[in-house]
Amino acid sequence: MLLLRLIQLRTSRRHTLVSVVFAGIAGGAPAAGLAQDASFGCKVLLCAAASNPSWSGIPYCVPVMTQLFRMLARGRPWPICSEGNASGLGYDPYLPCPAPMIAYSGGRSGTGDSGYEPLRPDPSGDQCADPARINRSCPGGGDNGPVCDPADLPVPRPQRTEPHFVDITTGGSTMRFYFSLRGY
User: Fold this and answer.
1) Distance CA 73, CA 121 (A)
2) Closest Cα partner for 134 from 122, 115, 148?
3) pLDDT digits (tens, 9 = 90+) for 117-155
């Protein structure tokens, strides 16, 4: 009974999601409901919520998620589970910046009289910088331009290996499920 196993393996936050989805799928029936009785969209939600092991460690979920990723890679929408509450497909290529840094964009040729776009805070930016240090002027200089402390300069923002996501909301909290469509 996959659903019972999924429920037992959840953290408290994920337990709520699986319990709510399971209750909706089973229609309040006893725990004897089987995962194969669920719609494809609900199977996906149950597998996406799996942790310890993740969906890839549950033999039942591997073909379900493989089919999902192929569908999404071909431009089809996230499947619907009327009993669940999932967002549409999202894309977030970057990991959060390490503290105390925040995300910035700009700093490249493009706009302005000098051909340089100033850095500006941007939650979707591709660079990380410490806001307390980013606007410091670089002292000295010479033939090679100003000399800057490396801590004053932005660094490339770390990229996710699994940049696609869906938000699953249940019981007043939202869980973001990240995955990759590469190879599908």
Assistant:
1) 31
2) 148
3) 778 899 999 999 998 887 666 665 556 666 677 777 889
